[in-house]
Description:
Keywords: Heme, Iron, Metal-binding, Monooxygenase, Oxidoreductase. Helix content is 51%, strand content 8%. By secondary structure, it is of the alpha+beta class. The strands form three sheets. The chain has a five-stranded mixed beta sheet, covered by helices on one side. Helix 9 (163-178) packs across helix 10 (183-210), helix 10 crosses helix 12 (234-264) and helix 14 packs across helix 16.
Amino acid sequence: MRLNPFSRVYLTDPAGVWRRILDDPAGAHYAEDLDLWLISRHAHVRRALADAATFANALTLVPVYEVCPAALSVIMQIDAPPTTAAADPPTHPRTRRALRATFANTAERVEAEYGAIVRRRVEQLVSRLAARQGEQVDLVPDFATELPLLVVLDILGVPDADIGRIRSWADGQIALIWGQPDPAEQVRLAQGLLEFWHYCEELVRRRVDSGQQGDDFISRALTYRDDDDSVLTVPEVASLAFNLLVAGHETTAGLLAHTLDQALSDPRRWSAIAEDPGLVPAFVAETLRFAPAIDGWLRVTTRDVTVGAVTIPAGARCLLLIGAANRDPAAFQDPDRFDPHRPDVGNHLSFGHGPHFCIGAGLARLEAGIAISRLAQTIPGLRLSPEQHRSYKPNVAFRAHRRLLATIDIPASSDEPVARGGATAEVRAG
Length: 430
């Protein structure tokens, strides 16, 4: 079985490749070009995500492709302890408790603690877009990537002035781990990653040295540890910040871009959302299933394990194809049809499953819901540009738009409700 995540075919239509993999009766496949075992069926991916004892996380953040010696020597200087995505017991349960105590992760807490932040940032960005009446904009940098990064900076207590560096470092981490950069680029990205880690260490060190702590995440984490390294070490606080500055915005940026793409690809969908914001949660949920921001995730087996009709040996790296699992006909009716009101939409695995279920799922849903609703109500005439040519960053795990060009069109009487009837019915029908 071959899977080239950097091919034009895969980047254009990964679902076409997933269908061929899902149709194979074996259930799991070894991809020689990647040196990875591919697990694609919903039941198998769900099981692997839940069984951290068999499918461990220790190599999750190790680059998919072997890096050159010069880049490796830089990476080895990064002494960030594993805390979340790359952690296993006994570390992961302890650091997960720390996250649950210091980072809002239920719908009620997320709204209470982060709702005002999200709404302020949404208003800021929507107003900026609305002021560009008649212009062509790129919704990826101008909205989808900007919003979640600004929100996570507010949550962590990081100044807006650092947004450019953090975006560059975060993009570099993803490219280094799940991309295929050449040796010179590997060295540059590794050096950026080392700078990123030192930056996070300094964020924490300044708070420790000053003794002044506020209500931001880093301050909460330091208060939670209460000078007890058995609860959480200072380097672990820096590592949590390091992880949140990447995971806290990259996946939500992907969700926003994919949702906007799905909503704007048919003007009737966008008009329906503008007319009835109550449609947005279901629309976001179906986007998570149909076009997840992360369509593959890495695990390593700790023992021989049978998946379908195949035995995967111990020590094998596995790529859990979340995007394929979300299109599995055994789990979803008519899986290749975008239908916001399908009864099985909640079965998607885009936030993971089990002990590593995404701690930021509630925040991502809140951001997407508020952002899409407000943007549609303010700019109901937003339209994708006719010359749209979709392209995606080449990557094993993250599916991210390079651009999403649109035209800002605000009717003179934009405060009037959108005409009711056909548009809403169209969205309800998918």
